[in-house]
Amino acid sequence: MLINNAAIVHRFSFAADEQAVAKAAEECSVNLLAPVRLCKLFLPLLKQNTDAHIINIGTGLVYAPRAAYPFYNASKAALHAFTQTLRMQLPEIRVSEVLLPVVDTPWHRGQAPASAISAEKAVKAVLRGLRNESREIRVGKVKRLYILSRLWPALAVRIINRL
Ligand SMILES: NC(=O)c1ccc[n+]([C@@H]2O[C@H](COP(=O)([O-])OP(=O)(O)OC[C@H]3O[C@@H](n4cnc5c(N)ncnc54)[C@H](OP(=O)(O)O)[C@@H]3O)[C@@H](O)[C@H]2O)c1
Question: How far is the CA of 9 from the centre of ligand 1 (A)?
């Protein structure tokens, strides 16, 4: 099993930040290209197993981007699309994606929003999804965000950016 979990996020103004492109490149490298490289690297080993599994960790923001993170959303949306194509190209390997809501982890540098769920709750939901063999495991409020983004995309974006 390969779990691609590591990621970074930069909160910045694309217009005002002199380092905007460097920050986008770093997010692209860690959040997208590292999982792509690791999948390629481990594929020969995974293919030797009858129950190989790749799990990519994503975010509900693939359904509705948050303005404060001009490139993080895009890097995870690209990972989302890559995960979908990987699943179609490699039917012999189980390929899952976890779409997380706000989770109280060191990610938030001690300032997790009130809406954050605990890491324990997130992990329990992920394990439940894996047991149910869900391919896209939408945790907590991401379930509702997914449906809303299909029915009323503009409202989904508005709600995400109000948080
Ligand atoms: N927390 C949330 O609210 C939230 C919401 C949606 C999605 N997610 C996703 O959940 C996943 C896990 O995030 P988290 O909340 O657990 O955040 P976290 O506590 O900040 O953990 C991120 C992990 O990524 C590792 N990492 C970052 N850059 C790396 C690099 N260049 N090379 C190797 N490792 C690197 C970090 O390692 P070091 O500690 O050694 O730097 C750390 O272990 C991420 O994919 C994130 O996008 C989180």
Answer: 9
pLDDT in tens, 127-163: 999 999 999 999 999 999 999 999 999 999 999 999 7
Position in ligand 1 atom list of the atom nearest CA 60: 6
pTM more than 0.90 = yes
Is residue 72 part of the annotated active site? The answer reads yes
Gap between the Cα atoms of 78 and 75, Å rounded? 5
CATH code assigned to 2-162:
3.40.50.720
Residue owning the nearest CA to atom 25 of ligand 1: 6
Q: Which atom of ligand 1 is nearest to the CA of 5?
A: 45
* Concatenated DSSP letters of 96-152: EEEEE--EESGGGTT---TTPEEHHHHHHHHHHHHHTT-SEEE-TTHHHHHHHHHH-
* Domain coordinates in residue numbering, the chain: 2-162
* pLDDT, tens only, 117-137: 999 999 999 999 999 999 999
Measured in Å, residue 30 CA sits from the centre of ligand 1 at 10
Q: Going by CA atoms, what residue is nearest to atom 35 of ligand 1?
A: 6
